[in-house]
UniProtKB/TrEMBL annotation:
Region ranges (Disordered): 38-57
Protein family (similarity comment): Belongs to the TMEM53 family.
Membrane topology summary: Single-pass membrane protein
Main location: nucleus
Keyword Membrane part of the UniProt annotation: yes
UniProt feature, compositional bias: Basic and acidic residues: 41-57
SUPFAM superfamilies to which the protein is assigned, alphabetical: alpha/beta-Hydrolases (SSF53474)
Name this polypeptide is given: DUF829-domain-containing protein
Amino acid sequence: MLLRSNRLTSAQKTTVSLDEQVEQAGFVTVGEGVYLSAPPKDGDAMKTNDSAPKDGPDSHPDVILIFGWMGSSFRPLSHYAKGYANLYPGAAQIIVQSYPSYFWELPWTRDKRVAPVVEALKETGFLTNSDAHVPRRKILTHIFSNGGALQAITLSSVLRKSGYYPPTQANPARSAVFFDSVPGVGNFGTIKRAFTLAVPNPFWRAIALLYMYSFIIGEGVASLCLSPFGYPPPTLRRMKEALEEPAFLPWASRETPRTYVWSKGDEIVPWWEVRRHAARVREYKVSERVRDEEFEGSAHVAHMIKDRKRYWDLVQDVWRASYRENK
C-alpha cells in the first residue's frame, strides 16, 4: 500500500498542467491555443524610428510566428520556441495550435479562432493602424503541415479585413517563411494517418474521421457541381492555391524568401507534393528566393529531431536571405 502511494505521489509530481507548461516556457495564454512570449520592450523600439536598431543580415526578427501542425500540443511546439529563443533572444514569439476540427469548421468559426493571434500581434507592436512612426517591421513565419498553413491563410484573410497592416505600404516588412512538411492534399489514407496521430483516442478518432470524410466528400461534390455558379474549390486546394500567391500573408511579397523541408519518410504529406509546390513557386517567380531541402528518413514534422543543427542552420539561412540592403 505504501509502495502504491509512493508511485502515485511520483506520478503526481511528474504531471505538469498546461498552465504550468506555458508559464515555465515563458509564455502567456492569449486565447484558446494561442500563446505569446514578448521580450521586455526596450523603450518600445518598434514605435519610434529613432530608437529602432539598425537592420542587417544577422539582426533578429521582431516577431516569430509559429503555426503548429494539426493536433499539436503546446509541449512539442515549445521545443521549437526554445530553439528560436537561443537564436533570436530579442524576438517576441507567438505559438498557434491547430485543432482537428479546424478543417471542417465554418469560415466565421475559423476567423474567431485566429482572433487572439491578431491581439498577440498588436501586443508586440507589430500591428498598428498607421505606419507614420513605425520602423521597418521584421517577422519570421514558421508553418507546420496543412493544419498550420490553413490557420496562416485564415489569419491573412482576417487581417486584410481588419484594417491593420495593409499589404501595400511605403515601409514594407522584412519577412521570411519556413515551411515544414507542407503543403500537400494527400488522400483518404494520409488523412487517416494524420488523424491517428492527432487524435489518439480510438473512439474520438473515429468520430473525427467520420466528420472529416463526410466534409471532404460533401465539399468535393458541391465544388464539382456548383463551381460554374461560383462555388469555391475544396479547402485544401484553396489552401495550396493561396500559398502560391506572393502576398499569401499581408507582410509577404516576391522578396520574401521561402524554405521548404520535406522527407520521403513522411507518411502524411506526400513529399512530391511539397517539391512540386516549391517548383511552381520558383517557376512562376512567386518568391525570388526558394529553397527546398530533403531530410532523409525523418517522419512528418520530425525533421528537426532528425538533424537539429542542419534544421536551425536552414532557419537562419532563410532569415538572412530576407535582408535587403536598400530597404
